[in-house]
Design brief:
This protein is of the alpha+beta class. The chain has nine helices and 15 strands. Helix 7 runs antiparallel to helix 8. The site of magnesium ion has 6 residues, from helix 7.
């Protein structure tokens, strides 16, 4: 017994003294640039945590992607107007949470926006303004109330033929949350997962300081307009500068007003700061659609959620509890 006590006493100071290291990896997942950083006692263990994170995001991508023909989402979409589809608890719950955001936003966030892909494509192939008829036909398929969830049977049914769901506005945030979770399980006591601009962080840097996160200028994304010192926080940005269609020299962004079917205008960037990357992702898109006034109203109403909004005039506003002047003056350490 005495021997064991000594052993433990001998071991603890060693563990406390070990210098943590940070390891990072960039890769492409879910069609976006991802980067993973893990802080661990040894670089070997940090790498294990990172590869576990990458595996987790790949798993989620295979489950929720609406492009893949083998995903559960694809099966749900193929059966729109035909039959309910039994899905995993994971997809069921994600759809349920997505519908909650639809309720919170009066339908401005709606995963059934996806039927609009018949008229707007943001891969360069849409070169003319869609007709009013085509827009109206697609908009008529958008309605989160027609995504029917059966809790007992664990099925999802899209009530109308031609309906389609897609997780472009919430999936990366979800993936960031889950990657963080598995990396923490692998012992990473600090880290950052950046899921194509949807970022979540935990713990501290190896030097014990908080993570420093930059918010990009929508006009020149290599230019940082403000810095945030964070730990255990998600910082998620929706911008109109990443994916858009260009028609007659005008840019149309990939975020759609579900009520009209038109790409939204007015804002160039929305950043949400809160604990939950999935919620932040969904809210960033929501505020983008709602616009400055209604978007701010929604965020100021929610506890523990802050935002920074940049409009098309390059004016910056922020929610009540985030002092943007203090942020802009902050010097990167
Ligand atoms: P990013 O992909 O740049 O991080 P967002 O998180 O705002 O941007 O997601 C934009 C994506 O969300 C679009 O590409 C589309 O897939 C989807 N989307 C567009 N409009 C809506 C909407 N009104 N509600 C829900 N999802 C939407
Ligand atoms: Mg989003």
């Amino acid at each position: 017994m005495k021997q064991l006590g000594l052993l433990i006493l001998g071991f603890i100071p060693f563990a406390l003294l070990a210098n943590p290291v940070a390891v990072s990896k960039d890769t492409v997942l879910m069609g976006s640039a991802f980067s993973f950083t893990a802080v661990h006692e040894s670089s070997d263990e940090a790498w294990h945590a990172i590869y576990a994170g990458i595996e987790e995001v790949s798993r989620i991508e295979a489950l929720i992607s609406s492009w893949s023909t083998t995903s559960e989402t694809h099966a749900v979409n193929m059966n729109a107007g035909i039959a309910p589809v039994k899905v995993s608890k994971e997809l069921f719950d994600l759809i349920q949470r997505s519908k909650k955001i639809s309720e919170l936003s009066n339908g401005y966030f709606d995963i059934s926006f996806a039927s609009i892909d018949k008229v707007w494509k943001f891969d360069g192939s849409t070169v003319a303004i869609p007709s009013d008829e085509a827009l109206a036909a697609s908009v008529s398929k958008i309605n989160y109330n027609n995504i029917v969830l059966d809790k007992l049977a664990h099925t999802v049914f899209l009530k109308e033929k031609g309906m389609k769901i897609g997780f472009g506005a919430i999936g990366k945030g979800y993936a960031a949350n889950k990657a963080k979770m598995v990396m923490e399980q692998r012992g990473a006591k600090g880290g950052v997962v950046n899921a194509g601009g949807d970022l979540t962080s935990w713990g501290n840097r190896p030097d014990g300081k908080p993570w420093t996160i930059g918010i990009a200028d929508p006009i020149d994304k290599n230019n940082i307009i403000s810095w945030l010192n964070i730990s255990d926080m998600a910082v998620v940005t929706s911008g109109n500068y990443e994916r858009y269609a260009t028609i007659n020299g005008k840019k149309y962004c990939h975020i759609i007003d579900p009520k009209t079917g038109w790409p939204v205008t007015g804002l160039t960037s929305v950043t949400i700061v809160c604990k939950d990357a999935e919620l932040a992702d969904a809210l960033a898109t929501t505020v983008f659609v709602l616009g400055e006034k209604d978007g701010l109203k929604l965020i100021n109403h929610l506890q523990g959620v802050e935002c920074v909004i940049i409009n098309y005039l390059h004016e910056i506003t922020s929610s009540n509890n985030l002092n943007i002047n203090a942020l802009s003056n902050y010097e990167k350490n």
